[in-house]
Specification:
The structure holds two protein chains of two kinds.
Chain A lengths: L2 H8 L5 E7 L8 E7 L17 H13 L4 E6 L1 H6 L2 H14 L7 E5 L9 E5 L2 H4 L1 H24 L5 H4 L5 H10 L22
Parallel strand pairs in A: 1-4, 4-5
Antiparallel strand pairs in A: 1-2, 2-3
Helix pairs in contact in A: 2-6
Chain B lengths: L6 H17 L3 E9 L2 E9 L2 E10 L13 H17 L6 E10 L4 E8 L6
Parallel strand pairs in B: 3-4
Antiparallel strand pairs in B: 1-2, 2-3, 4-5
Classes of the chains: A alpha/beta, B alpha+beta.
Chain lengths: 203, 122
Amino acid sequence: MDRFEKEAREGGYRLIAGVDEVGRGPLAGPVIAACVIWSPLLYGLDIADSKTLSPKKRAEIVLALREREVVFGLGLADREEVDRFNVLQASLKAMAAAVGSLPQPPDFLLIDGPFIVPTDIEQKSLIKGDQRSISVAAASVLAKVVRDELMDGYHRLFPEYNFASNKGYPTIEHKQALRQHGYSPFHRLTFRGVAGLRPAHER
Amino acid sequence: MSARGDHSLGKRGEELAVKFLKKKKYRVIERNYHSPFGEIDIVAWDGDTLSFVEVKARSSSNYGSPQAAVGWVKQGRLCRTALDYLAKRKITDIGMRFDVVAINVEGGVELIRNAFEYREPG
């Protein structure tokens, strides 16, 4: 899980960070990105691709990362930005924001997926990076936990969509609720399944 | 969280921060200073040191408490803006510092003195 990190280290880079984002597919909520500095602190926590971990395990990992004071940054692109640009541009912006929110600039980035993050920092994108790089995997877990937490908060404001369970993703139940109630302020108006609907009643 | 967000929340946060700083014996001399590089929320004397203060709203959630009070990108912008300020106001030969006032959703206020070191704007 750290081949690419070690390669970068051997290439003379000193502050190496993994970057990942979550939330491109949902009909509601922001894209959240995380950037995690690679260090010995990431080991021994069973960090893996967030999609393969239970919510409980993900929460444990995030707690451990915080306790160990692993250095990380977070970035957000809200649904307005997703609608105004597009979800790809919004994701890149969230990733750049995550990198920029670190206490100091990394000198090498490992990025999940086929992305090029808009920054001058040297970078390498890794297909399935969250399965191949421990720092990218850690970023995927952090982004996932943070985004889920936000969606749980939106659920308390708009329980009819059941964001707590679907996290904004297009489940049958979610699409049905959209047709029945209209869209909430958290929905992406340019997405199929939301576009053309009416707004939910003010409360 | 993005600084854009809720403008009125930002304004209220700044009011709280100014009050808090006055209690800490800071002498506020400027608010919302704009330069081509960015904005500084508050400029204040703390004794004979000039403090450039960034006001941050913090939520109590995971999202709101990343490690850096101010990330390196913003640090660079604040440093450039501070230099611009000193030049425009013709202030020389002083000690300066960057502080952060963090305000959480419950209204708790925290002062982080010397939140980051001056870095040469790159």
